[in-house]
Design goal:
Four copies of one chain form a homotetramer.
Chain A lengths: L22 E8 L2 H7 L8 H17 L3 E7 L2 E6 L10 H18 L1 H4 L13 E8 L2 H30 L5 H8 L4 H12 L8 H4 L2 E6 L23 H13 L1 E5 L6 H5 L7
Antiparallel strand pairs in A: 1-3, 1-4, 2-3, 2-5, 5-6
Helix pairs in contact in A: 2-3, 5-6, 5-7
Chain lengths: ~280, ~280, ~280, ~280
């Protein structure tokens, strides 16, 4: 095609390329979900429909983009983990974050009616998400990242469970509930929930307490001919095209498993090779 | 709230901040729209419904984000222009591109049924968009950027109009049409359209030939007390909070005007002060 | 040449490219010059030898690198201004800052003996400089940048002149002098210098009060055939090779002029076209 | 101190921060050393004085900046390795590369007379160096980086040794020598050196064949109370101030050892814990 004399403005486009061989985490956050959840009358402290919809959208994104090996979600956020050797979009940051945010939004909206059949979306307040990419050079940091998000889930959920019990069952105002919880630690809150409201926090739904971990279970996707041990290869050694296609196929076939369990302790990480191969 | 010992992983988050006082253009592109447009049977060479939906989504995004002063769209792409002094999201690149991509997607999907009432979206192929941010230090470059996109619209549309005339009206195969157009210049194609198919290209719908320019017309939004001349102020001088709120209000009230005209020549730019204030 | 299998590590090299068509300022700062100036017994509050050496090194750097169109220095810092359209080192940030820092250091050390004949450098404390690159999209900001540095020179020099007058002529300790100046404004210090020490600050050496501005005076370098007016050309339009060589030649021939005058007011900037063409 | 109204221009300064917990390599390269080495009549194919001076400057830089744990040099280049957890200059890229380039230049020039007593530097051609920073997320990549530079040293030196033997001993012109070596592999060159000039390449000075590796030998610097095992700690866990000072002291006391041996094979890396702790 012919080119115009204005073409030179392309030279101003600068791609931010993420460093090779780091774990990339792309975290999506709901925009203005405080207002959004009020507008669509989300149940307090947790709305199982809203969490289900988040998980559905994340699941669909993982199905579509096979480079995602795992994802962790809680509240209105979702973190997607890409393999160290991932080359999706040549590791261009803007392309990664915009595509993830857009595609997730599309699924979230598409499945809205399935999860909120009585609450149609209206044009004045549509769901949207921003995204950021973070790089972690080692597995330890990736583990600590996911642990950070789950610890955050725990801290927030214990607080919110107590806060809304005081309001919904204890008849306190939001102000009073906030005051009641000031200075309390975890065991104070556990005690309060149990003694005043008969709630054993540990019996709360794990999806509330632990969030949701999605993993692409490559163990179950193993083909007849196992992959050769890759440990000693160079980090970025090119694979043959055929090898790459075979791996892509395995990733597409692999089952995506949903977990609501502890991802901080060793148990989860002892088996991480099956999704973080 | 309590913090976990994993909190340190936050220090790995690095924000790419766009330079102050440059024009920021955020361009969205449809992901895989070749396949998408075939799947949903878009009319060739142009589908007025699809362009209408793009314009609707862009209009809604401009309504929601008042920092956008103008936008240009054609085919499956849309470019949004932010003022030099814009501080939206502290000019963080990832936040800007992900939010624009997500929000545009939300509107595009929400209004789909209005533009394609007989063609419901199905889960196997949802619309999504990637985005990039480009910085232009001077008005000349911004003008050249928009000119580049409109020149691109012209070149592509003239080609596509000829290509599909050869197929739909001339009975050629795609291969043959491609061959017929090889080596032709603009006037060859104009001549071909006219002599063989009686089509005067200049009478084609301007939205096809020129694309769509949306401007936030601040001239019509002027309040009784006009803004003082800002020419001599320092580029980043802080405005008082009240000034900022008043300007925000004016931007929200301003009409968004849709144009399908030449944006390369001086005519359009002689009046640019009304939207690029 | 043959390549080794380790070559892939090159892909980790990421160049930070400065945006096209912005003014680039590269500012060098002496490393640990508080200690350095004490070690080599610099005169207080200003050492004319040290400033002369800074100016000499800056002059030599401008002679060597013809892309530099101007430079401003004071104390142990020097800022070098590159044209908007400058393409030196493809605008790679690391290459620019490291080369400027290294080359300036080489000249500073080479001419040391000329300015400090009685004070040879010793290996335990050699002069070195760090550097940073800053981008300014408009001429206004470049002007404000240079104004900022000269205002800084003024503020510091007035303080230091007063401080050392109190010590060297007033017999105060450093502590006492610091205390004497606490809360004083400019006119207080002017008054103090005059009334107590008979010093009219405005008669102090301009190199102390105003710092040093070096400009590459292209007006005097103009060839018989004048350059065509470039105002309307595209910012990055390619010049012919011959044009580029001719301009390079003109830049090399141009005289570098040393000024010690006000660079904040309009006077200096009304004539800026001769060096900032 | 008072601030001027121009202070806002500081907001345009953007620091590029290197990712935490990656190995940082800063590689310096001589600027225009082809011309420089001809000007100062360096011996061909290797000048032992020039290499000695490079090593001296690198040694001094390591002495001054204790964060450097190792360095590898050959020809007119030197690569400095920083620990993963290094926080020197808050990992600001421009500050790192400019400081390294400047300080290395200062030492190189200062010790010039010691290595080239009969060849004083002249102002028309002073030595200078540029620098770049590269990040490697894993030890494997760092090892491959250093292996790459040593393989490069080997390939170049074998070529240059053959090339200059053909000229200096074989009486060929540069053109002829280039032609003679076209298409030869390593063993061809070894054979040529031996059969035509009686040179056993493996007996050449190791500093030519292997380059120079400097390591900060922490093993010999160990204090009575050994450091606790740090393997399980978080990558960025804060050390107590006392711990940090103690480690700094140990690093300053540690001997810097100069090696001219193979750094590609396992032998060197089996003992890497003593400098890459």
């Amino acid at each position: 095609m012919a080119k115009s004399r204005f073409e030179y403005v392309r030279t101003y486009e600068q791609d931010q390329i993420l460093l090779p061989n780091t774990y990339i985490v792309i975290r999506l956050d709901g925009r203005g979900f405080h207002k959004f959840s009020a507008h669509y009358k989300f149940t307090k402290p947790n709305d199982i429909r809203a969490l289900g919809l988040m998980n559905k959208a994340a699941f669909c994104l993982m199905k579509q983009i096979s480079d995602i090996c795992g994802a962790y979600g809680q509240s209105d956020e979702y973190s997607f983990v890409l393999q160290r050797r991932c080359r999706l979009f040549d590791r261009r940051e803007a392309k990664l974050v915009s595509t993830f945010a857009s595609t997730f939004t599309a699924y979230y909206q598409f499945y809205w009616n399935e999860f909120f059949p009585d609450q149609p979306l209206d044009a004045t307040l549509l769901p949207s998400f921003d995204a950021r990419a973070v790089q972690y050079p080692s597995l330890t940091e990736l583990r600590h990242y996911l642990s950070w998000r789950q610890a955050d889930c725990h801290i927030n959920n214990l607080y919110n469970t107590s806060f809304w019990a005081l309001i919904l069952k204890g008849g306190e105002t939001e102000k009073e509930a906030e005051h009641s919880l000031m200075g309390t630690n975890s065991s104070d809150k556990n005690e309060l929930l149990f003694s005043r409201f008969g709630i054993n926090y540990n019996n709360e739904d794990p999806v509330f307490r632990k969030g949701t971990m999605l993993i692409r279970d490559m163990a179950k996707a193993s083909s007849a001919t196992p992959e050769p041990d890759l440990k000693d290869e160079m980090p970025l050694q090119e694979k043959s095209k055929r090898q790459a296609e075979r791996e892509e196929k395995r990733r597409r076939k692999a089952e995506i498993v949903e977990l609501h369990e502890d991802i901080i302790g060793d148990g989860f990480w002892n088996e991480s090779s099956k999704w973080l191969s």
